[in-house]
Design goal:
The chain is of the alpha+beta class. Helices cover about 45% and strands about 20% of the residues.
């Protein structure tokens, strides 16, 4: 098991980073928000979870142990794999996920692409007691500032990233359009992506 990685960032994508460790570049899948916090040439220090399949070894990275633990816990539910667990953490902060599970907030859970009502009910049924037992269900939602957008090519990158996470082309376009209104809108891809994820998570 690769529990963590630390090294120079070689590349940053919308949903992954490449970290050089001992001369080897490791592709680490992350949430868009975590990827956006890194820059090429800077050092990354990520908690990681290695998912082993017959045909692949896939590394998932997190800014802290809390998100990593929740990522692993979510996968104990039938039908929830690593991509869906990561999508949940892309849409909601760890405390928001725990609160939704503890309170049975199906509306919040079904904001995640790939999670329908039945899947949300199963998540609540299987994890609610475990979440409440840790005392995490009472955590407040993390306040998030609004953000907004940029030009055509940048918007296209953001829409592509959102579609890759499971939203439809229309949902992605509508979200980008909504968050890029305003004269003082920032132009960074990461800022637009974060704002669009918040918009889709409403």
């Amino acid at each position: 098991m690769i529990a963590s990685v630390r090294g120079a960032v070689r590349h940053v994508g919308l949903d992954h980073v490449v970290v050089e460790v001992g001369g080897v570049g490791l592709l680490v899948h992350t949430t868009p928000a975590t990827a956006a916090d890194h820059r090429p040439g800077q050092e990354a220090d990520l908690e990681t979870s290695l998912v082993v399949r017959e045909e692949s070894l896939t590394l998932y990275g997190f800014a802290g142990a809390d998100a990593k633990a929740l990522f692993q816990q979510l996968q104990t539910v039938s039908g929830v794999g690593p991509r869906l667990a990561l999508a949940m953490l892309a849409v909601h902060a760890p405390d928001e996920v725990r609160r939704a599970l503890a309170q049975g907030d199906l509306a919040a859970l079904t904001k995640v692409p790939g999670i329908g009502r039945k899947s949300a009910e199963r998540l609540v049924l299987e994890l609610k007691d475990k979440i409440l037992a840790t005392g995490a269900g009472a955590a407040d939602l993390t306040a998030r500032p609004a953000a907004a957008g940029a030009g055509g090519a940048v918007h296209g990158q953001v829409r592509e990233a959102l579609e890759g996470l499971g939203w439809s082309a229309k949902q992605s376009t509508d979200a980008v359009t909504t968050v890029t209104r305003g004269a003082d809108a920032p132009t960074e891809v990461s800022e637009i992506l974060r704002a669009a994820l918040r918009e889709l998570g409403r």
